[in-house]
Amino acid sequence: MTNVTMTGDPRKILAHVEKQTGAWLGELCDTASELAKRPPPQGSPYLTGNNRDSIGFDHDNPLSWRIFTRSSYGAWLELGTSRMAARPYMAPAIQEAAREMERKGVD
């Protein structure tokens, strides 16, 4: 853990932190949404590419981002159902995007 001491107007400092964090989250979501569009895991349906093409991301404010799929079955693939095992693609993409950003030195 790193300790940081900042001096100055707390509002300006918080605005700067929010801007930097928002930029990082935006890059993470962009990278993860692209990684999630890769060919699906073994056993996942892949006839039309509908789920892949429906993956996107947006944000309400710099600190509130979301990655989503607009397909009617994307969540079922990610989380599974009572009759189907999970076939995660979104969570692994987010984890890989975070590792990729770490390798690039973005933290």
The secondary-structure element order is HHEEHH
Q: Are there runs of 5+ residues with pLDDT below 50, and where? A: none
Q: What separation lies between the terminal Cα atoms?
A: 13 Å
Give the helix proportion (percent range).
Answer: 40-55%
Round the Cα radius of gyration to an integer and report it. Answer: 17 Å
What count of structural domains?
1
> How would you describe the shape?
elongated
Which sheet architecture does the biggest sheet show? 2 strands, antiparallel
> Major sheet: order of its strands?
1-2
Question: How much beta, percentage-wise?
Answer: 5-15%
How confident is the prediction overall: mean pLDDT? Answer: 81
Write the layout of secondary structure elements.
Layout: H1 10-36, H2 50-53, E1 55-61, E2 64-69, H3 74-79, H4 90-104
Antiparallel strand pairs: 1-2
Helix pairs in contact: 1-4
What does this entry look like structurally?
- This protein is an alpha+beta fold.
- The protein has one domain (10-104).
- It is 49% helix and 12% strand.
- The chain has 4 helices and 2 strands.
- Strands 1-2 form a two-stranded antiparallel ribbon.
- A hairpin with a 2-residue loop joins strand 1 and strand 2.
- Helix 1 (10-36) crosses helix 4.
- The longest helix has 27 residues, at 10-36.
- The radius of gyration is 17 Å and the shape is elongated.
- The protein starts with 9 loop residues before the first helix and ends with a helix.
